[in-house]
Every structure is written in structure tokens, then in C-alpha cells.
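Explain this fold:

***
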Amino acid sequence: MAKDRSKGKKKVSRRAGEPVPRRELDEVRAREAGQGDRPNILINTLNVFTRPLQGLIDPVKRVCYPPLEAYWERKYRRFSRHSRKMLILDLLLVTALSALVVLWIFAEAIFPAPGRPEIVSLTASWPERVESGAPLDLTLSWKNDS
């Protein structure tokens, strides 16, 4: 038996399935109930951040939830065993598709497709007046920049 230094009582190790004496159980419940009286600093800190957002989220819930619930009943309720998995998979696929479309639009806006580089420049020249059957001087010049 190991001795608990904080309380001065002996700590008893029990086997699995062995009942706990009523006195010990009452002591543990009393200690746990006493801990609930202290304010939880972390939760109160999070409430400072979440309360203002709740005013924005509640109207969105009222607008979005009824159509989503109707869609759920119509589309997924018949697959009772895997209905949640199928809904989550569908939502992930729609999210991935929309993310790809947004990424594609931003990529086109930020990185426009480059034009073809001019490797060979070609110019042609001919006389202003061309007569049928007369000799013609046509000049082609090019420059290879590769």
C-alpha cells in the first residue's frame, strides 16, 4: 500500500471490477463538488470572444438550418447507417471543388499565362502597286534570336 502524502491517508489500489466502499465514494464526490465552485478562467475568457460572434451566427443558423435539414431528410435519411458519413463526404467534396475554383480564379488573376516568346522575327516588304503579269520584288527578312 502506498501512502498519499497530501492527505496522510493510505492509498488503496483496487482490482478492476472490485466495489468501492461507500465512504470513499462519498469523499470523492464531495471533493469534486467543491471544485465546481471555483470560476473557470479559461471558459470565461473564451466567452469574451464568442459572445459578440454569437449575435452574427444566430441569424445565419435560423436561415441556413431549415433548408439543410430538409435536404438531409430528402437525400440522406434513407441511408440510415451511413447517412452522416455520406453527408460529410458530400460537404467535403463541395468544399474542395469550391476551393479549387477560387484558387484557379486567383491564380489566373495573379499569374497570367505568359505569351509565346519571339524566337524568330519575320518581316516582309513589297511594292505599293502590284500589276498583273509584271515582275515583282518581294523581300523577306528574318532574325533568329535563339
User: Anything to note?
Assistant: The chain has a mean pLDDT of 78. Residues 6 and 118 are 84 Å apart (CA to CA). Helices lie at 22-35, 41-75, 83-110.
